[in-house]
Amino acid sequence: MSSRCLWMLLCLSLAAPRPAGAAKMILNEYNAVSATNYLNGGTAAADEDGGTAADPAFGRVLGNGGDWFELVVIADHLDARGWKLDICDNGVCNEELVLSQNGLWSDLRAGTIITIAEDVPTDVSYDPAGGDWTINVQAIDGGPATYVTPNSFPVSNDNWQLTIRDASNALVFGPAGEGLASDPAQGCDPPPVGVNSREMFKLEADPSAVVERCSHSYNDGKTSTFGAANLWNGGASTQSFAALRQGLPLPDRDTDGIPDDGDHSGVVGDHPCASGQTTGCDDNCPGEPNANQLDSGRVGPGGADGIGDACQCGDVNGNGSVTSADRLQLRQKLTSQIADVDAPRKCGVLRAGECGIADASELARVVAGLQPRAEQVCPAAFPPTDSSALWFDPKRLIEVDITMAQSDWDVMRVQKRDLFAVFATQTCGDAPFPDPYTFFHAPTVVIDGQTLSDVGIRKKGFFGSLSDTKPALKLDFGEFVSGQHLEGLERMTLNNSLQDPSYVKQCLGYGILASAGLPAPRCNFAHVRVHVTSASGTTTAVDSLYVNVESIKELFLGRAFGDATGRLYEGTLSDFWLKGTPATGEPWRNTIDPKDDASAANESEIDALTTALTTPTSASYTNAQRRAAIEAVLDLDKYLTFWAGEGLIGHWDGYADDQNNFFFYVLPADGKIHFIPWGIDDTFGRGNPLATPPGDPTHCAAIVPRAALPRRLYEMPDTKALYLAKLQALLNTVWNPTAHLAEVDRMQALIQPLTGDLTSALAPIRTWIADHRAHVQAELNSPPAPFAAQPDHYCFFD
User: Fold this and answer.
1) CA 165, 385, 559, 735 torsion: positive or negative?
2) Would 256 be classed as within a structural domain?
3) Residue 73 in domain
4) CA atoms of 189 and 204, how far apart (whole Å)
5) How far is it, in rounded angstroms, from Cα 519 to Cα 607?
């Protein structure tokens, strides 16, 4: 048993749900501008953008006011006497400021802004009733100790972090700041924020009890507001303190109408609603919609426990309480007597991941009333700490309203590639295929009631998804307004599902690939309306369902790999091979598209992998040497999972079968290539018009690869065996037709009110899912022969 599990068994209790919100006081902003720089760089006359960025309190001065940071009080009538502020600077954590026992700190009102500065004189004229919501105290060596420790302190752009503790030394908030490490055990998935010596670190959201220390609403920026509401999006967006200061409704992350911190204490979950109670209390299940706030049972004997029925971990049959019936169903799942439990998000009792035999044993123990009771750790119990996860919640249908000029819409919607120009020229294959799409200006985009201004919008797609009437779209919130984002989300990729009239293939497929452990993008659905304006008025050009897929950008890379600083590439009809013969051909690998300057400047792994794959097998270059060369630049085990995953969902238009629709990432930690699935809208039943028909000896359900990398691996006996074992393992553990068909049913119920009846579109998908295991198993039992040689390049000229 792991030390973490042992600790949980010793310490767990279930008297109340674990607080899920931020804290009674949070970090709001700090000044990372160095003493030799101006805010946003430049000189005293102008910043590096040609403007005159300055803090309203200081003006445009070197150092932007010196060392200072800003806090916001979340809980009302807070007593913060004796609270401790621990500071880490560049990994050194030896600074602590302590708030005094002065009465100033004894009754702080929610919405108070506290600044602590070295160079700004103390101002405690604090009077919320009179409209003065700010306190500044000066902390400086040799200064008075009336309000805070008389010590100077550092603030910098070198991974500066702050931790807030109360008078009893209990953790209140943090560590928060730059350079946070990922901590899955504590739900910490930090944003990839990098603050330079000309910038601020700030919260770009309304302060509230749902702001976590790892919130993706923390960002770097070029605007500074000492003692005032933060600004971002070039000054277009401003923090609102109205909810805190006026006792208005607070955030509700599961959108069920019950605020996460309904008692305004500053802590989510410290006063959960009892059954039927919906006001003046906290949502008793902030991770799952439960407007009725029912709380009829607990883990083990007894009645209500402060945890809503929708969140009871161990309640695998979903009836609201945890009994021996749940233990029986869990045991039946684990012994393969049934395919799955009724409520899989409530399965884990000891851990948040996939439930296992230890959970069943613990469930038997706590049902019998033995102490200590199990903690609530299953996925249903807590909302995501990553605020961007809200926009990919599979239960939600996102509402997106885009307004743009008719003239821009008419130009954008008809942009496309020319088939002849792409494939029938002598330069085809010599470079990434040219991108014909440009960004246009959308003055207003409203997403689930939140308005963003001046958003960049462009068309997307290669050939298969092109449409002049319902184009696939990309939204970039920061294209025209630097730093603009939507609660941590900087972009949206909205696919028109032209190749999938059922709409369900992408979200279903990415979910299956994620369950296999692959870095798959998140996915849900969006109802998109495009309103176009002209001199004659406004009309709606699009009113339809789209598939909302997570963009393969920094947010995804940080979430999936824990590091967004590596090199990213995209493959579109691309391969690690050559046009023509290895001896005379030109590089086909040149169609691989580096996604940034650093990637374009260093393609050494691509060159090394291409060499390893194109070098002919001979006495001087053996299979063992080829494998060693491949593994030097590729995480082989993860690639085998990727390859098997593509076959498992029938992704004929991916890398292995069609040398298309894939990303790969060179992770700094190991310097190796990691593949990322993409473009899976034509899966779960081969839609390839060029594919050989079923029954033909060369038609295969999952195995025979055309691309250079899997083809070479399939040729070598040892790596072929590894691949077949990997595919068999995924078939046994990940492929679950009952669960997949249930997910299809769930998605159909969600989107069909908008799309109309999808029964006929879904019928072949359901049949394919039901039959696929037998087809793959047949291939595994009698693996087909590989392709004799690398298939020809797609270009008409070789």
Assistant:
1) positive
2) no
3) yes
4) 17
5) 24
- Domain span holding position 427: 387-557
Structure tokens that stand for 534 in this block:
């002209």
Give, for 220, the enclosing helix (H) or strand (E).
Answer: strand 218-221
Q: Are residues 369 and 471 in the same domain?
A: no
Same domain membership, residue 395 and residue 364: no
| pLDDT 10s digits, 717-755 | 999 999 999 999 999 999 999 999 999 999 999 999 999
Q: Which tokens go with 178? A: 């730059």
Look at the chain and count its residues.
Answer: 798
Alpha carbon distance 254, 581 (integer Å): 57
Structure tokens at 795: 């270009």
Is there a contact between 110 and 76 (Cβ–Cβ < 8 Å)? yes
Q: How far apart are CA 411 and CA 415, in angstroms?
A: 7
401, amino acid identity: D
Same domain, 434 and 542: yes
Q: What is the pTM of this model?
A: 0.71
Kindly report the CA angle at 652 between 647 and 656, in degrees rounded to 5? 65
Given a cut of 50, whether residue 15 has pLDDT beyond it is no
Q: How many whole angstroms separate alpha carbon 328 and alpha carbon 320?
A: 16
The confidence score (pLDDT) of residue 12 equals: 28
Residues 6+ apart with CB under 8 A from 756: none
CB atoms within 10 A of CB 85: 25
pLDDT digits (tens, 9 = 90+) for 751-773: 999 999 999 999 999 999 999 99
The Cβ-side half-sphere exposure at 483, using a 13 Å CA radius, reads 25
Q: Residues 145, 147, 152, 156: what is their CA dihedral angle, to the nearest 10 degrees?
A: 170
Name residue, tokens 């002598």: 426
Instruction: Kindly state whether residues 377 and 396 are assigned to the same domain.
Output: no
Per residue, what are the HEC states of 485-523?
CECCECEEEEECCCCCCCCCHHHHHHHHHHHCCCCCCCE
Task: Kindly report the backbone phi and psi dihedral angles of residue 591, in degrees, each rounded to the nearest multiple of 5, phi listed first.
Answer: -75, -10
Q: What is the C-alpha separation between 497 and 587, in angstroms, rounded?
A: 33
Q: Which two tokens stand for residue 484?
A: 């603009």
- For 741, the token pair is 């068909």
Q: Do 328 and 360 reside in the same domain of the chain?
A: yes
Residues 583, 645: one domain? yes
Q: Do 430 and 378 share a structural domain?
A: no
Q: How far apart are CA 67 and CA 288, in angstroms?
A: 42
Q: Round to whole Å and give the CA distance between 142 and 669.
A: 45
Q: What angle do CA 147, 174, 243 make, to 5 degrees?
A: 75
Q: Answer with the one of 528, 557, 586 that is the final residue of a domain.
A: 557
Tally of structural domains, the chain: 4
Q: Are 382 and 312 in contact (CB under 8 A)?
A: no
Distance, C-alpha 165 to centroid of its chain: 29
Kindly tell me if the per-residue pLDDT of 527 is higher than 90: yes
Residues 378 and 391 in one domain: no
DSSP 127: B
The C-alpha atoms of residue 20 and residue 41 are separated, in whole angstroms, by 39
DSSP 62-90: GGGGSSEEEEEE-STTB--TT-EEEEEET
Mean pLDDT along residues 129-157: 96
